[in-house]
Design goal:
This protein is an all-beta fold. The chain is built from no helices and 4 strands. It is globular and about 40 Å long.
């Protein structure tokens, strides 16, 4: 069963990923990277983009 924890605005969303057996979500956007805790519904870290290194 899904339980809504929080809502975040992600401008320029590029990719979303996770590792098996982990409770964290990695989000890549044109503005940078974010790591989210899916259990608590919190943003753990935010890194500004230093160019388009992942393209």
């Amino acid at each position: 069963m899904w339980i809504h924890k929080n809502t975040f605005a992600i401008g320029g969303l590029e990719n979303v990923g996770y590792a098996p057996m982990q409770d964290q979500l990695l989000v890549l956007s044109t503005q940078g990277e974010g790591i989210f805790d899916c259990i608590k519904g919190e943003k753990i870290a935010r890194y500004e983009s230093q160019g388009d290194w992942w393209r």
